[in-house]
Amino acid sequence: MHPQADTQPKTWRFSIAPMMEWTDRHYRALARLHSRHARLYSEMVTAAAIIHGDRERLLGHEASEHPLAVQLGGSDPADLAQAARICAEFSYAEINLNVGCPSDRVQNGAFGACLMREPLLVARCVRAMKEAADLPVTVKCRIGVDDQEPREALFALTRACIAAGADAFIVHARKAWLKGLSPKENRDIPPLDYPLVHELKRAFPALPIAINGGIDTLDLAMEQLAFVDGAMVGRAAYHNLSMLQEVDPQIFGALAPFASSHAATLAFLPYIERKMTEGVRLADMTRHMLGLFAGRPGARAFRRHLATFAVRRGADARTVEEALQLVDAAPVAQCDTCLPA
């Protein structure tokens, strides 16, 4: 039986979408310094990669990143079960199944949004992961693909997954067109249908449901929380990372970890120093910082400095400190938390 949504009111209340090549461990570490409570998601990792690949590289993360979910790609229940067991060993808080990505890669692998056409197979995958790992198993999906009737497709998938024990649904409120639109176009061109997701929540009140797609401000996220249990933000949380500074006060009624995005970035410096001793390139971390301070005086100079100097030989955390000096920083209060050095 599903817990009533109001027994877990904050679990999926605000989350940052899994985004390939964007939501890696370095971005997540920086995002966590802006919000304690936002739920973070890994990039999608295929079950096959986890079974056969470098698990530490694919699944490793900082304890400070929690609450953290891993998103899996795949369509074979046995493989997904094995991957789920491995993910549980890495102490994730949730396993999310990708039933929404429209890229050629996932189409060739017969998973992602293709699975909207196979609700019973998705249900078998969910049940296999539930039996393999003592973790919440959730589904992130579209409202349909190609010529499917959205209400029929979405409701059929939801019913099947509820019967299999799915713990929550995250619905990107657009169709995916697998033929004729690129992955980028699929993020914008198919029209949004928020009312259909609201109807889904009314039909299945015991199932926690979060909404995704087109939510690019916290005000829009708050509006959606009147209808569903959670809002998931994607590109806006990457390109304007400083917006996360307001998530805890506005969405969760709690203090942000730091008084400003400037202070949060200063607290990121020990992480940078530690990772560089492990062989991580500075540019692999600073590339996620270009969305800081959007719209602030000095933001362009900050981005230019990082883009120019972080790639150079000998660049280190001082490069970030120099970039911060170019930003018209808000007053910085003493912080009460930071990533361990």
Structural description of this entry:
The protein is α/β, with parallel strands linked by helices and 341 residues long. It folds into two domains: 8-248, TIM Barrel (Alpha-Beta Barrel), CATH 3.20.20.70; 261-324, Four Helix Bundle (Hemerythrin (Met), subunit A) (Up-down Bundle). The protein contains 16 helices and eight strands. It has helices spanning 25-32, 47-52, 55-59, 77-89, 104-108, 119-132, 150-164, 183-186, 194-203, 218-224, 235-239, 247-252, 261-277, 282-286, 299-309, 317-324, and strands spanning 14-16, 40-46, 68-73, 94-99, 137-141, 168-172, 209-212, 230-233. It has an eight-stranded parallel beta sheet. Helix 7 links the parallel strand 5 (137-141) and strand 6 (168-172). The termini are far apart. Mean pLDDT is 91; it is low at 1-7 and 329-341.
Structural topology:
Elements: E1 14-16, H1 25-32, E2 40-46, H2 47-52, H3 55-59, E3 68-73, H4 77-89, E4 94-99, H5 104-108, H6 119-132, E5 137-141, H7 150-164, E6 168-172, H8 183-186, H9 194-203, E7 209-212, H10 218-224, E8 230-233, H11 235-239, H12 247-252, H13 261-277, H14 282-286, H15 299-309, H16 317-324
Helix pairs in contact: 4-6, 6-7, 13-16, 15-16
